[in-house]
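Hi X.,

You mentioned you wanted examples for the new student's onboarding notes, showing what a folding record looks like when two proteins sit in one file. Here is a clean example. The first protein comes first, with its sequence line followed by its structure tokens.
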Amino acid sequence: MDKEEEKRVIARINELYHLKEQRPLTEAEQAERKRLHKKFIANFRAGFRQEVENLVIVDKNGREVTSEKAKRAQRRKGLRKD
């Protein structure tokens, strides 16, 4: 999901939230809210996973202490040569 689509999804989720505060949502609105929420969460998780997988951890002595799991993910993506 690109930034523009993400903004539209968030705006619509917020719009449905405010409608819910005023009146009960219709079944169609509830289904739309659920679908948009799932889409937003999936996008958030994908972005968060990418950030964590690209993370390199260095201790106070300057030695890399990145986990092996993260290193494997980085190698799969071609981000590591070791």
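Then the second protein repeats the pattern, sequence line and then tokens:
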Amino acid sequence: MYKNLAATLVAACFFSPVFSQTAPATVPTKGSAAEPVKAGFVYVSPITEAGWTRQHEEGRIAVEAALGPQVKTTFVENVAEGADAERVIRDLAATGHQIIFTPSFGYMEPTLKVAQDFPNVKFESITGYKQAANVATANARYYEGRYLAGIAAGRMSKTGVAGFVAGFPIPEVLQGINAFTLGMRSANPQATVKVVWLNVWFDPPKERDAAMALFNQDVDVIAFHTGSTAVMAAAQERGKMAVAYHSDMRKTGPDAQIVAVTHQWGAYYTERVRAVQNGSWKSANVWGGVREGMIRVGDFGTKVPAAVQQEVLKAQKAVGAGQLQPFRAGKAPVRDNEGQERIAPGQALADAQILQMNWLVEGVVGKLAR
């Protein structure tokens, strides 16, 4: 399954438009003012104070703020991937929603199935990779933020040992682990990263247990690719440091948070609803990062020195300008943790190579199941 996924991703063709955060709402055409666009959102977990689902909820709220009475939104939370997702998506399509956002990888197939039966409804498969005439896909270059967070972690760690609590070994997660490790080792060449795989996206007790286990192995800073604030809470409890993911989590870890990698969906969602409104919506495949405003690093904790903050923010500007690429080798090659050269000196990975990533970089402790 994993190899088939990687092969399909290679065939995808991404583009990265810059979304306007302040673009004015389109003036409704005659006859359309009385009928707002109905936009539906399906969430894979409950709406919590921070995390993956929270960021998409913030995106929905941003759509309402930008378009006002020209849009009416609906959301359904805590929808399991699979049959439940298909039922919910189908219900939204059948009740007059003109555009439906499905932000979870496991929603891809249910979205495509429903889309076949509702050709006049537009669907946005977030993190999916399969398109249709009425199904667009979009994702963010999360790895850019991971690299920047790694710089901060490398500067702040005293043991030089980081932990990483991860959901599944899909390319997106591997990109994040590798970029975080490369960023950390740019600050401390001897740093290592220990990974624990959960095989689940949202399970707060399991996330917490994994974090606690890592803290017992010399880990003093931790990152995660899961859906709740449990790892941040564990770091706060143990007096350790953590990188927030998806959202700013200083409320959960006021003393623990070093920095946050946040995902900004509001501008993209607003542009896509506006496109339905003015009739310009087309299926597309977007992969945006720091430059497009879809990924942002900031929200530093109080313990992070000003010099470290400035270093990270300067690097973020370089990423946005295309001057710094996480998966570009310097004078020395980038090798995986089994010694194989993966990026030749002075070379960078192409998007297709990043999308099919199936290896762990030097410095990561552990192996992938084959």
